[in-house]
Amino acid sequence: MLEILEYEFMQNALIAGILVSISAGIIGSLIVVNRMTFLAGGIAHASYGGIGMAIFFGIPIFFGATLFAIFASILIAVVTFSQREKLDTFIGLIWAVGMAIGIVFVDMTDGYNVDLMSYLFGSIIAVSRDDIYFISSLLFIIVTTVTIFYKEILAVSYDSEYASLRGINVKLFYTVILILSGLTVVGAIKVVGLILVIALLTIPIYIAQYISSSLWSMMIVSSVVSTFFIIIGLWVSYTYDLTSGASIILVSSLGLAIFMLVLKLRSRI
Fold first, then answer.
1. Per residue in 211-221, pLDDT tens?
2. What is the DSSP letter of 127?
């Protein structure tokens, strides 16, 4: 397996995978604890609108996707607090509209023939050094924000009413969590793609829940588990010439199945 690291594109892929694993472990834990999986899915698919607009206006794709993801996160946060009963409908709407906007803008871009499947299902071996710098900056923002406001985020995640009584701005930190989720989604575009990103944000966390005693330890364990899945998935993708994002998620799913089987056997014993 080590011989594949002789190639620069595989080195870039491994670095990007580790960076995204850390982001996914941290934010995935918050998504699961706050029961935001469906909301994060809406943000992920809406981000495709930012990709299409970035292609049309000739700006960096990551930058366009980031702006769109942040906009979608804030919009979802506003609807969550103002019209919660209509949230499911709104998520479905922003999910569909975001992707439709992306497709329309790509159609209007003359001469653009890049394979957009790489943004939907990932293409980690196509990660460049510039991509790594961008993903690193997103990870820095995520780690810094969670570290500085860990107590507030912890309180909001586990008991929002108690947090409100303590004077914590619940709406603000709820929005912050959604925005960080959007940034994580953007960082994972090249690794697993927009379609499969939710699996990366939930499968390792589900495993980490059983072997963690706190939110902080869950973040660390899920980051390690996610890194393991990405490395094995990357090897499978390279060895058998398969789509990287799909390979990573299938490896993650297999890992989850084995973990659940072990738990079941252990409980019987």
1. 998 999 999 99
2. -
